[in-house]
Amino acid sequence: MQIHTANRANATVVQPAGRFDAHTADEVRAAIQGAHHERVIVDLGATGFIDSTGLAVLVGAYRELGEAFALTSPSPAVRIILELTGLDATLPVHADIAAALAPQVAA
Amino acid sequence: MNTTVDPLLTSALSELDDTRRRLLALCDLTAAPAPTLAVDVALERSVRDLARLLRCEAAYALVDVDGTTTVAGHPRVVDLTSALVFAARSGRPVTVADGSALGVGDGPALALPLMAEGIEGVIALVGPIAGAFDPSDHWLALTGVGHLLTMLETIRLHHRTIESTRVQAELELAATVQERLRPASSPRLAGFDVATGSTAARTVGGDLLDHVSRPDHLYLTVGDVSGKGLAAALLMAVVQLAARRWITDLPDAAPATVVAATNQETYDALVDAQMFTSMCIARLDSRDRTITYASAGQSPIVHRSRHGDAELLLPGAAPLGVTSFSAAQDEILRLAPGDIALFGTDGAIDQRNREGEAFGVERLLALVDTHTGTAAQLITRIEDAVRRFGGGAPIDDDLTLAVVIATEDVA
Questions:
Q1: DSSP state, B100?
Q2: Which of B16, B259, B367, B377 has the smallest set of CB atoms within 10 Å of its CB?
Q3: Comparing C-alpha atoms, which of B222, B367, B238 is closest to residue B291?
Q4: pTM above 0.80, yes or no
Q5: pLDDT in tens, B241-251
Q6: Do A86 and B321 count as a contact with CB atoms less than 8 A apart?
Q7: Which residues of chain A lie closer than 8 angstroms to B323, CB-CB?
Q8: How far is residue B378 from each of residues B223, B239, B304, B343, B364, measured CA to CA in Å?
Q9: What number of C-beta contacts closer than 8 Å exist between A and B?
Q10: Is B314 within 8 Å of A60 when comparing Cβ atoms?
């Protein structure tokens, strides 16, 4: 897995590419915890697979950051997992990074 | 009597005696390593033998094995911190004319680093009786230190083997406890043929399977703690006991109420462990052949009516531990004889084959669509299909299934 982190005007965007599972969960968690901004967006567009340990990292970040946390553009495989686990009903999921940033900009 | 002995002979005898002593020291130093020896005892013996072998006034050691530091010295112990830094920097044996640089006195000294996986340290030999260390002393010292490293590695491996055996024994005990938390047999309720089965991917599992029987109805609970191993198994027990108690304490409780109460009770423990757990509680009622269920993130239920195709029923709420209040709602399935409901499907859906392809939903739906036998037979068919798909290798995830088939008989 490769993790790309980028700082936007008011948010840090973490992009895990590849398998987000028990072997890589700690790296993603560290990237989220080390974010430059309080607002963190995890872009799942290049995440080909996620297991329950990966989901636990996203849930942990949501518990920690609340509304300052968002997910964007989940790949089809990840979107299915979010739906199957009912997490799409709770975690804020946006179509793309611009959409995730928009409410914050408006505020 | 003439007691005068040729000085050359005296010198030769003395050298022979010295050589004999050094050979004995070398024998002691290179004796077969005993894995049961304590590190401090091994170190004390080696330091003493090195001092004999190199014919020096003192020898000291400081060794860190897996984070535990041990010191030894002959004839006494000194602080070797400076020598350790010195040896670590050089990475090879170093002779100094003034041992004060190493903190071991002011005579000639030889510092030898000890480096191996999980082992770091230094040996310092001080005050050679001959006045200085020569090249052959270096060679002898390296031989002795090499053997000491082998001994320390043997002891370390032995301790790790013991620790590994102890952990495995504890895991097996945990597996036994977990097994006893599960119902000993599938439940029975008029109007339904019910079967359950659970296989852990590791020694202990994070899946939850339980049932509580009441007159005319039955509560069936399946769940899956995120992650695997002992932590997941412990949390599984916490969640299972909480759910069971709410079912027992609240007469005729709605499944959504039990899910919400269980979430509230276990939320902090799940947050602390950085985990969450999916859970579905189903109440089977034999009076009207209905299933009322509430699913918090639990893998979809497969429902097949006798005259239709199998379909997936997705959970309506997030798993327990995600938010402090669960939004799970009660849903009702009205079954006719022959209808099937399958709970706990993630272990099957997520199983991968050697090419990395998932077993998936379609294969599971096809198994349910074509099933004409009993609930227990459907569980066996799914388990066999999942194992075959995985190429006979151990399953990827805990596989827990509960099958309900409506029957003609009613209460």
A1: G
A2: B16
A3: B222
A4: no
A5: 999 999 999 88
A6: no
A7: 90
A8: 20, 27, 13, 12, 11
A9: 64
A10: no
